[in-house]
């Protein structure tokens, strides 16, 4: 006898999957594994992996690595950390795994990405920075909709 999950159970599972995804987003730099994530929402690791893949199109581990690589890209663009420092800052414990996954997702090695983007993110001229960051009082705020003449 097989039991089909009810709509209510399905919604509860989706809520638990969102909590897992939110935890990965928040704690991506912490040591996380599927077993720990599953324990946090009272699911088995296998069930969590299957349901997560069904809901989000990738495994929890792949989602975690994607978040780590996105954060690593931002840190590498800053240019003040070495690739090894970035690797450990984003929560990876193996430089080799980090470099391989980075290359798979980005299409170039972390070192090549850092070299290519370090000069591209130079600060804009002060006159532009001043204009963009200038506070706007409520009276000076532009209308949200364009005015027709």
Gyration radius from CA atoms, angstroms: 22 Å
Question: Count of DSSP helices?
Answer: 8
Poorly predicted parts: none
Structural class: mainly alpha
Q: Report the count of strand segments.
A: 0
Give the averaged pLDDT, no decimals.
Answer: 83
Write down the secondary-structure element order.
HHHHHHHH
Distance between the termini: 70 Å
Strand percentage lies at: under 5%
- Helix coverage percent: 55-70%
| Major β-sheet annotation | none
Q: Quick one: overall form?
A: elongated
Q: What topology does this entry show?
A:
Layout: H1 7-26, H2 34-40, H3 45-56, H4 60-78, H5 83-89, H6 95-106, H7 110-118, H8 126-133
Description:
The N and C termini lie far apart (70 Å). Helix 4 (60-78) runs parallel beside helix 7. The chain is built from 8 helices and no strands. It is elongated, with a radius of gyration of 22 Å. It is mostly helical. The mean pLDDT is 83. Helices cover 63% and strands 0% of the residues.
What are its keywords?
single chain, 63% helix, 8 helices, mainly alpha, 149 residues
């Amino acid at each position: 006898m097989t039991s089909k999950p009810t709509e209510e159970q399905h919604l509860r599972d989706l809520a638990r999957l969102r909590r897992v995804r939110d935890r990965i987003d928040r704690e991506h730099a912490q040591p996380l594994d599927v077993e720990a994530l599953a324990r946090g929402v009272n699911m088995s690791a296998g069930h969590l992996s299957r349901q997560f893949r069904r809901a989000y199109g990738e495994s929890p581990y792949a989602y975690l690595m994607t978040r780590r690589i996105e954060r690593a890209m931002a840190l590498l663009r800053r240019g003040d950390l070495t690739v090894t420092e970035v690797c450990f800052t984003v929560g990876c414990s193996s430089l080799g795994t980090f470099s391989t996954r980075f290359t798979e997702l980005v299409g170039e090695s972390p070192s090549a990405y850092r070299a290519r983007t370090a000069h591209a993110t130079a600060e804009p001229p002060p006159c532009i920075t001043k204009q963009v960051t200038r506070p706007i009082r409520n009276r000076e705020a532009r209308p949200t909709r364009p005015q027709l003449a």
